[in-house]
Amino acid sequence: MSDELKELNQIAVGRRIRTMREARGMSREALAEIVDISPQFIADIEYGNKGMSIRTLFFLKQALGVTSDYILAGNLYSVDEDTEAARACEDIIAILHTCNTSQLKDFREISRIYADNVKRNK
Predict the structure, then answer these.
(1) Helix ranges (DSSP H) in the chain
(2) Among 3, 21, 49, 70, which residue is least crowded by beta carbons within 10 Å?
(3) 0.90 exceeded by pTM
């Protein structure tokens, strides 16, 4: 483990929250209602203008279906997760970095179709 601690980047935190909210097709108003805060406060968090309480973080992670670690640090998977899953995530991210905007949108749609199909077949 590194002895150096990272700083919390509120702008990056807000960007991750906005990205996940939009990926789930949620408006700020809908998320605010679920989390029991104002839409303006959601906007302030998303723009990095304000921080949030642990309670708000806890509700946001549940509403968005992500981990607190993802919201705060951008980690897509737990350190306890198996190494093959971690390697697969890293490989996918590397591929995505080579794509243009149109390709990323297509990949997102393909991923949604695949995930929906997997859920239906469980």
Answers:
(1) 10-23, 28-35, 39-46, 54-64, 68-73, 83-96, 101-120
(2) 3
(3) no
Residue type at 38 in one-letter notation? S
What is the residue-level pLDDT of the chain in tens, covering all 122 positions?
456 778 889 999 999 999 889 888 899 999 999 999 999 999 999 999 999 999 999 999 999 988 888 899 887 655 545 677 767 777 787 788 888 989 989 998 998 898 888 888 87
d(CA 48, CA 12): 7
- Give the CA distances from residue 91 to residues 2, 19, 86, 97, 104, in Å, rounded to whole numbers and listed in that order: 24, 21, 9, 10, 15
Neighbours of 117 (CB within 10 A): 9
Task: Please name the amino acid found at residue 119.
Answer: K
